[in-house]
Design brief:
The chain is α+β, with helices and mostly antiparallel strands. It is 15% helix and 18% strand. The N terminus is likely disordered.
Length: 386
């Protein structure tokens, strides 16, 4: 089965990993999914804002309908094991992930089938939990595919590109995690950073980026991977619903500089449910309303996307009305249904919702066997604790 969707999303309340149709888009403590609203301002913030443009307007590079005959934004495709994989020839094979890619028969491509732009082709393989991305993807007369570059990401992990490697984005990052999607906006919250571009960048990259695309050595230009956020003082109350959700996300999660392009251009997936008039109000925001963020304190390893985050209180499990509790005050939450007692019903809940718990709950709260992970060993240990 193949599902072609311009935009899809299903987000649970609370702090958690973003997901698309039930497939997590990296863990909740991946740097793409971690809030930065309380981090310090970068020492070069003023320089970076000045270079990108203090008076330049924020620009939503996504919407409904067509612009110059093409959908507005970067679409993606959801596939599964029924879609056969095929080899892809690359212009930059030395920095591309080898192997086969699950390209569907008639995929959604950035700009449409006949475009001459970046032609990103994004594929979520939901059975594998992997993201396959191609840049400058072109179908050849013989039915094979050729692309500028290709990258494969494990959506359940923290792996980054090799240092110095590109991806399908100049910063060496995945494109999909930074897209604004209609369904998450309709749900009232975006739980990840947003991809954006700037006209000129520095010949440098910072975590989590892995690649630069510039010859400019002047440090007043922003490096690839630099994170920005909308200032906390910015008043969003006068904005219409869709724009306001985007602005609140820019305050909490910010945006990551991922490619060279238009100043303050934020990227999203096309969807005919977007209200373009609503989105156009985002252009009232100027570069001076942002600030660069120093997120270096979140880095655990330069080769991992995992971020150092403070564990939050457990969330209410699906179908329950109360949050889990810790009856014996040992830091482990044996009472999953929140009724104040550890009982067999809690074991059943753990078994039913273990995947949801892995994706959404603080690891330390449910690591009953102390191995640093939430797994079926914890289920056995919880049963023994009763």
């Amino acid at each position: 089965m193949l599902i072609l969707l311009p935009a899809a999303g299903a987000l649970m309340p609370g702090v958690q990993a973003a997901d698309i149709s039930g497939t997590p888009i990296f863990p909740s403590d991946h740097i793409w999914n971690v809030p930065v609203d309380n981090l310090p301002v970068d020492a070069r913030s003023a320089d970076y804002l000045n270079r990108i443009g203090l008076t330049r307007n924020l620009h939503p590079d996504f919407g409904a309908g067509l612009y110059e005959g093409a959908p507005i934004g970067i679409p993606y495709n959801i596939v599964n094991n029924s879609v056969p994989k095929q080899a892809v020839m690359f212009d930059y094979a030395e920095e591309s992930d080898p192997g086969s890619y699950p390209v569907p028969q008639n995929p959604l491509i950035e700009g449409g089938g006949g475009s001459e732009g970046d032609r990103h082709l994004l594929m979520i393989q939901e059975d594998e939990g992997k993201l396959y991305e191609l840049y400058a993807a072109e179908k050849q007369p013989d039915g094979t595919w050729h692309a500028g570059s290709g990258a494969i990401f494990d959506l359940n992990g923290y792996g980054l590109r090799l240092a110095g490697w590109t991806s399908t984005d100049a910063a060496g990052l995945a494109v999909l995690p930074g897209l604004v999607r209609y369904d998450e906006v309709a749900a009232g919250h975006i739980d990840h950073a947003i991809r954006f571009t700037a006209p000129k960048t520095q010949k440098a990259y910072i975590w989590p980026a892995r690649h630069y695309a510039s010859s400019i050595t002047d440090p007043s230009y922003p490096p690839m991977g630099q994170r920005f956020r909308l200032k906390a003082s910015f008043d969003t109350t006068g904005y219409p619903p869709q724009a306001r959700v985007v602005l609140e996300a820019l305050k909490k999660y910010g945006m990551i500089l991922s490619d060279n392009g238009g100043a303050w251009y934020i990227t999203g997936a096309p969807d005919d449910r977007w209200d373009n008039d609503d989105l156009h109000t985002l252009q009232q925001v100027r570069g001076s309303d942002f600030e660069a963020v120093d997120e270096s304190s979140l880095m655990i390893s330069p080769d991992s996307g995992q971020a150092r985050v403070t564990q939050t209180a457990p969330l209410v499990l699906p179908g329950q009305s109360s949050a889990p509790t810790d009856p014996d005050h040992d830091g482990i939450f044996e009472d999953l249904n929140g009724n104040g007692e550890a009982e067999f019903a809690d074991v059943v809940l753990f078994f039913i919702h273990i995947d949801w718990i892995v994706d959404n709950e603080p690891r330390s709260a449910f690591d009953f066997n102390g191995n640093g992970e939430i797994d079926f060993g914890d289920l056995t240990n919880l049963f023994k604790r009763l």
